[in-house]
Amino acid sequence: MEILRSAVKLLGQAATWEIVFLSFRISLLATILSFLVSLPVTLFILNRLKKGKILISFFQAFLFIPSVTLGLLLYLSLSRRGFLGFLGLLYTPKAMVLGQAILIFPLITVFLLNGLKEISGKVRDTLLTLGASSLQYNALLLREAKFCLASSFIVGLSRAIGETGLAMVVGGNIKGETRVITTAIALDTMRGDFEIALALGLILLTAALFLNLSFQIVEHRWR
Prior knowledge:
By secondary structure, the chain is mainly alpha-helical. Helix content is 79%, strand content 0%.
């Protein structure tokens, strides 16, 4: 009980919220980047579904790759000897944004594919019969799928904000630079600083519950 009281007191400290704001900024940017890439890829696959089955299988298989393994591959690519080493991104927030964007890209893509495919089956024949062009069809499809788009974005953000292994590997967990909620919890738990770890855990749990509630509301509106 005493630990919980101390954790609640730490919620008022600026250092705690510095970690929180950095976490959400990185995860939000990663989700936006991943979503903007995933959406045209999804439309491309939908418009050429027979030719896109291999891509769909690839994205589905990529969902099961451990995040720490992806972090290792990205680390090797961004290190000085890596082919992207000249960018100097390792141990920076940009590397974490890139890593999280790659991590959630297949998740958002598969979610969009399932949702847009369902909606497309209901409106495609009608729109094409009325003479809609490919561009008009895609625009109308996205308008009809606004709740599906919102759901996929929330799912991606939820996955990104709770990621630990990749963030630790490519970010380095540097205080004031790349230390986010999950990596700070892992570090403080190992050091025995359970109060700050619990405070951050409460914030992360609240964020997860909020995102889950938002997803349920949007999903209900969609269905």
